[in-house]
Amino acid sequence: MDEVEAAHVWGSEAGMQDTKQMSVLDAIVTRRSIPQFQPTPVPREIIQRLLDAAVWVPNHRLTEPWQFHVLGESAKRRFAELRRDSRAAAMPNPTAPEVKPALQKVVEDTVSTPVIIIVTARGHDDPELKEENYWAAFGAAYAFMLGAWSLGIGTYFRSGPLRDAPALRELLRLSPDQRVIGFLYAGYPATVPQKRRTPASQKTVWLD
Ligand SMILES: Cc1cc2nc3c(=O)[nH]c(=O)nc-3n(C[C@H](O)[C@H](O)[C@H](O)COP(=O)(O)O)c2cc1C
């Protein structure tokens, strides 16, 4: 299945859930980061079901380091303002009138995103386990993304300096040992972009 076909089959039927089955391989290959979503809400039960699946990722010593912060309307608005402020902080002249619409768009795009889940992970005193906890939490995020795609729901995983902003930590009421891994946006796709990959054969070394 090519990406355009995937957009047609999996991206356009907002109500579709289990009526069609997608192979794991098709989900891996056809999933794309979705920049725009339809306004259709994603039912809470589906989000919960995807999270319930996501925690089955491999996890060394079963530390289960993740926490999923699903933003409601007021948390989403506060997060949107934090995103705007973070974007403004990176601009040479954030108070210039010409950048105001761009900053306002950050807020609007964020609050209109159907689902925003902030994925956090606990660290660890042992640096090796700390690193592995972060990998496991991203693994859970990716499992969510693949599961979502198999149900016709698109996702976009974002990172950036906002991850470590004190105001965000306050919003999420994080304990000192929790770290934001990334921002997971989800919803029924409005478009499915095409992306490129270098064939794995060019990145593979077969050793005798
Ligand atoms: C750890 C991680 C962090 C990412 N952070 C961002 C980000 O901050 N902004 C962004 O636009 N995309 C981010 N992405 C998404 C990538 O840009 C996207 O996966 C890439 O362009 C490939 O597109 P595809 O997912 O559609 O194949 C991130 C992806 C990963 C795995």
From TrEMBL:
FMN binds at R31, R32, S33, H60. Residues 28-188 form the Nitroreductase domain. InterPro entries: NAD(P)H_nitroreductase, Nitroreductase, Nitroreductase-like, YdjA-like. CDD domains: YdjA-like (cd02135). Its EC number is 1.-.-.-. One of its GO terms (molecular function) is oxidoreductase activity. Its cofactor is FMN. Pfam families: Nitroreductase. The keyword Cell cycle does not apply. Keywords: Flavoprotein, FMN, NAD, NADP, Oxidoreductase. Binds 1 FMN per subunit. PANTHER family: NAD(P)H NITROREDUCTASE YDJA-RELATED (PTHR43821). Belongs to the nitroreductase family. This is Putative NAD(P)H nitroreductase. It comes from Candidatus Segetimicrobium genomatis. The lineage of its organism: Bacteria, Bacillati, Candidatus Sysuimicrobiota, Candidatus Sysuimicrobiia, Candidatus Sysuimicrobiales.
